[in-house]
Amino acid sequence: MTVNEKVSGIGANSERTDLNVSNQPIRYIAGLGYGEGGAVAQQGGAPMAGSVPMPDVIPLSEPTRRPNEPASYGLDIGPGPGSEIVNLPNTEPTASTVLRKIAQFDNSGEAELAISYLSDYGF
Fold this sequence. Notes:
By secondary structure, the protein is mainly α. The protein folds into 2 domains: about 1-55, no CATH class; about 90-123, no CATH class. It has 3 helices and no strands. It has helices at about 40, 95-105, 110-120. Helix 2 runs antiparallel to helix 3. The N and C termini lie far apart (about 55 Å). About 0% of the residues are buried.
């Protein structure tokens, strides 16, 4: 099966890509009551995978494809590298991020003053 997808160019060479043919067709849902057909119309709003090839699903009963990789790979416990390999952003809260959240609900303005104080001193 071939997928006939348009790829947009740049500037004057650009073309519409929202009409690509690989979108799934809208499916009729049987048994809907009067006025409930709006859900069917909403199917066309977001393109779905359609005929785009999907990666293989590996069943749980199949042997591992990575026999030399420990099950704790990417976790901060057990053998193998920890979560540092995932390159997630730092999620530790800082004083300025906590104060910014507090400032949203602080009517006194004290949190804003603390934020400006911290920013004046490079925090």
